[in-house]
Amino acid sequence: MARKSREDLRLHRERVRTKLKEDDNNADLIQVLVGMGTSGIAAGAPGVKAALIEQCKLHGIENVRLRQVGSLGLDFAEPVIEIRMANMPDTIYGPMTAELVPDIIEKHMLDRELVGRYVQHRPAPDMMED
Amino acid sequence: MGYSRYDLESPYSQFCYVCSGVGCEQKKSEDLYRNIKNEVRNRGIGASVQVVRTGCFGLCEKGPIVKMLPEETVYIDVKPEDAAELVERHLVKSEIVTRLQLKDTARRPHLEVKNDRGHYQKQVRIVLRNCGKIDPENIDEYIAREGYGALDKALFEMTPEQIIEELKLSGLRGRGGAGWPTWLKWNFGRKAAAAAGTAYVVCNADEGDPGAYMDRSTLEGDPHSVLEAMTIAAYTIGATQGYIYIRAEYPLAIKRLETAMKQARDYGLLGENILESGFSFDIEIRLGAGAFVCGEETALIASIEGERGTPKPRPPFPTDSGVWGMPTVINNAETWANIPVVILRGGKWFARIGTENSKGTKVFALTGKVNNTGLVEVPMGTTLREIIYDVGGGMQEGKAFKAVQTGGPSGGVITAGHLDTPIDFDNLAKLGSMMGSGGMIVLAEDDCIVDVTKFYLEFSVEESCGKCAPCRIGTRKMFNILDRFTKGTARPDDLWNLEVIADATKKASLCGLGQSAPNPILSTLQYFRHEYLAHIDDETCPAGVCKDLMKYSIDAEKCIGCTVCARKCPVACIDGKSKELHVIDQERCIKCGACVAACKFDAVLIA
Q1: Exposed (0-12), middle (13-18) or buried (19+): which is B284, by Cβ within 10 Å?
Q2: Could you say which residues from 55 to 74 on chain A have a Cβ atom under 8 Å away from some Cβ of chain B?
Q3: Among B89, B69, B365, which residue's Cα sits nearest to residue B212?
Q4: Which of B46, B82, B314, B334 is deepest in the core (most CB within 10 A)?
């Protein structure tokens, strides 16, 4: 965490970008983004996150990384999670409950099958990829 | 990464999304879903195609919607009987069914982005670009997405004049409500700072409008964008100290800001000698105690200085005399979040989004009687209809749309007749409402306009700081009159009184809070005068909200004398013997509605 010069910042950006890209392209890694803004937390995101950790352990899934992110703005569907893994479309699920977590893990992560009814659509394209 | 990691090695090579949002379900999307599933099964492709029902897609007026992955082809107005053709041609033969495909002819050019495969998303996310994408407590994830790239560019490649020029090109206007051009503010601040020798930069995150939370969400989801923008402004005007004024009711935003500031300092992106450029700037957080008036910039400055948060007359404007009497540039959190993008992509890039005099996007907090409540960010110039029906998924329970309240206690209503008005600063002002900070509360047929207006006046009464009489007394008087309307005790001259006081308060109040407090009244009187009149002349509340104006009675034809209502009544005001007509004693009735719910014969009438 050293102080950075302009050059350092640019090198650091390349490093973290490469690292994040590697994660995205890592066929063995499952990333779960949990919406942890106030609306998500109020709707029960911490409980969903805890259930995800517990259930992944129970199902013996170790290659999962939980990441907290801000709100996607889909307040009507909070708590919202997004699952990003190889061979599946990036999928937003909501409203999530702890009870729904085993279903998501067994169907989406293990059987690579979407869990209908809870799939939400991405609200906007990512301008940073434009 | 979009869908790029999706390939054909999945058990399913294709996914068929059938929208099961409320709007689509009303148009038989459930039958469509079953038909598609049957067709897929009958053709023996069930092992490679998964058909799923999804949440609302938006575009509800064009539903039912079907989306095919991985191609992301979107089909609209799909009827249950279209299932066979869709499955046969799209899923089996890999053809596009052009007849049903969503065409993007009506799409405005400013919505074009390279990754926009769907041609359906009405939202463009600039302010919220990182919200839901990055961990707000991890600076590296921000840096990976061009974070602090704008600061790098500003410090090393641009002069302050060039930065202001870029802002001018962008056409960015303040998102706090008034819509003052940002470049002008910075330019005034810069000139005054050169003379004064010191200056301050302030982020106004004292978001107080009922139903508005765009600043909170931005700071919670992407705190670094605000820090980066403030540092750029400090460099531009020559400030070394900044303040973020945020309400104490936003603990999570405060925590994430503090974390972000610490990380930025550790990286040398905030504090002494930023990026070894020789430029130094630091930020302090100041907590507001929740007074609405502290969102007004002169009151906010007083509060930062530790004084009581009351406004001062302007001029002098904060750009001449702000914090500690020094030139100060104050921008709202949402405005700040736009800055890094303007610097990185350029003013021209930014200015192609929006309308002639309102560039870029606006974040709205969409709440009320709409299906998909939430934060939406749309280009300026998007119509209310698009926001409510395409993004918001339409009205809850199919209720009729009545109006949208925008601008909170300083704004007004927009009615059905103006659903197709492109929303920007100027058009909203013309309609008698205002952009405000961006709260958008959707009202339905069962919302009483007078009651809603009373709610906003009650808010203004409570939040009036009391310094000037027109606001302190005027808001109270107006509230009292509205209260009489809702209680059925309004006097014939009350409508006239209301207008006179509203006009006086607007003209004579010291600050924006008082000057705009009558707006909800003036705006609703303009569009819903008949509803006010109904409360006086007919002593009824057309929406059925104002209890004191409602009268419960029992229909002599329908009542069979079962006594259920009399037993359910909590105040025992219903009399009647078994198998005889029951009667409600109007004097004692508290209008709780228990009898209506209890009666199996719909014999209780409400008028």
Answers
A1: exposed
A2: 67-74
A3: B365
A4: B334
Residue B513 lies in a domain: yes
The ipTM estimated for the assembled molecules is: 0.95
Calculate the alpha carbon distances from B508 to A9, B162, B313, B504 in Å. 53, 41, 12, 6
Please report, for the domain that includes residue B582, its CATH number.
3.30.70.20
B118–A116 C-beta distance less than 8 A: no
Q: With a CB-CB cutoff of 8 Å, which residues 11-40 of chain A face chain B?
A: 12-13, 16-17, 20, 24-25, 27, 33, 35, 37-39
C-alpha of B101 from chain center:
31
Q: What is the pLDDT of residue B10?
A: 60
pLDDT of residue B417: 92
- The CATH number of whichever domain residue A97 belongs to comes to 3.40.30.10
| Two structure tokens written together for B23 | 């709007």
Query: Is B492 among the domain residues?
Result: yes
Are the Cβ atoms of B143 and A33 closer than 8 angstroms? no
Does residue B7 lie in a domain region?
A: no
> Which tens digit of pLDDT belongs to each residue from B462-507?
999 899 999 999 999 999 999 999 998 998 899 999 999 999 999 9
What is the enclosing helix (H) or strand (E) of A35? strand A30-35
Mutate to test the interface with B, among A67, A75, A80 (most CBs of B within 10 A): A75
Q: Which of these, B469, B402, B418, B411, lies nearest to B212 by C-alpha position? A: B411
What does the block give as tokens for B349? 């890039």
Is B152 within 8 Å of A122 when comparing Cβ atoms? no
Instruction: Assign B550 a pLDDT band (cuts: 50, 70, 90).
Output: confident
Write out the residue range of the structural domain in which residue B368 sits. 361-444
Residue among B132, B144, B266 whose CB faces A70 most closely: B132
* B-interface mutation test, from A6, A18, A129, most B Cβ less than 10 A away: A6
> Do B497 and B415 fall into the same domain?
no
Give the integer Cα–Cα distance in Å for A55 and A106.
10
Could you read off the pLDDT of B583-605 as tens digits, one per residue?
999 889 988 889 988 999 999 98
By percentage, how much of chain B surpasses pLDDT 70?
A: 95
Q: Is B11 on the interface with A (CB under 8 A)?
A: yes
